């Protein structure tokens, strides 16, 4: 194990939802509506994970993803036939990495003091499908030493249990939480990691500023505007 | 205690958010934006409660309400001065009941086999302010035998602990959960109550159908389109 563990979130961090919007546009012939359905789908997907956590219940992320799609379709008054719904679900298995991912992973491979893992709400199957279907990710498979899925804990981010499980998987104890650096585009994930004492780099591609106030005193350790920005954060951390 | 306990949620069930939209319109001179800010505020307010539950953290609903307002303003690119923000927060202490509340409470008062309580995410102070500032609610104060605030549990709906606390407050044990009927306009609250074995009446004023699928097998016990609809549900339940 290196001195720093980088734990990469995938949905909204390594993988973009543009493929979903693209497929919805094909079915709906309406760009604005396609974007609304995609956003609503993602919103319910996350809301469901938070609510399941709250209720002490668990359904796999595959089930959550399907259920939240059906809710989003109802909510936006959008009719799709079963075949189209299955097609959208399949799209979720071949989401495309953001354009900045390949270069960032190439650069990060150079750091021998860094261990990288994937850390996701997705099931192992969903994660594997996305990695296999992406040329960039499949070529960098060895860059990721491990895949940590919340499915093994049966709770979702930002439950402390899933970050603690991540720590266990990468061989870190309570006093070493700061060695783990979450990399995520999702503010709730950043706050969740900081809540248990991890460091967290927020990938703010939209260059919005940090406005999340669920825990108003919690801020990301660092903010980058593209994934390659992590290189400088690590160099500084390792005093290189 | 009667044979049935009706536990009334307040925000979005007895109390409407129209007063918030009204005040926002005054500040923003833009009806559509006022509605968007109000919706975004409410959305973050609930998201924060679910996320705090998930993180095992607690801030009072007053703090959550303020923090989510600031997030909603940032998110919608809306600038308000401190005085306006304080004014909006104060509006939350004098939300106005939906027009169907007075008649429903009058009708429900006739049932001697029914005990009614208020059951809310709000602090006791917030609930008391809303009850006092509303003529309808203050005149019906004796209709509510108790006020149950999640603040006493330091978790938010839909955590099982808060519904179990409600049960304890109304003197019901695990085998008597079905005697408690939650009345709520909020689907996450309905699912939360059903999750612990309570009955739950969804107040679906917008006449949307039940499309929530966080727990896809969970449905409301009954759906009413106005608060007075509860009367028939109770009559049926009591075989009157």
Highlighted features:
homodimer; 240 residues; alpha/beta; Rossmann fold; DNA polymerase, domain 1; 2 domains; six-stranded parallel sheet; 10 helices; 6 strands; phosphatase activity (chains A, B); HAD-SF_hydro_IA (chains A, B)
Structure description:
The structure is a homodimer of 240-residue chains. Chain A is an alpha/beta fold and 240 residues long. Chain A folds into 2 domains: 4-15 and 95-237, Rossmann fold; 18-91, DNA polymerase, domain 1, CATH 1.10.150. Helix content of chain A is 46%, strand content 13%. Chain A has 10 helices and 6 strands. Chain A has helices at 18-28, 31-55, 61-75, 82-91, 101-108, 124-133, 135-139, 160-169, 187-195, 230-237; strands spanning 4-8, 114-120, 144-149, 180-184, 199-203, 222-224. Chain A has a 6-stranded parallel beta sheet with strand order 3-2-1-4-5-6, sandwiched between helices. In chain A, helix 1 (18-28) crosses helix 2 (31-55). The longest helix of chain A has 25 residues, at 31-55. The mean pLDDT of chain A is 96. The interface between A and B is medium-sized, with 34 and 34 residues.
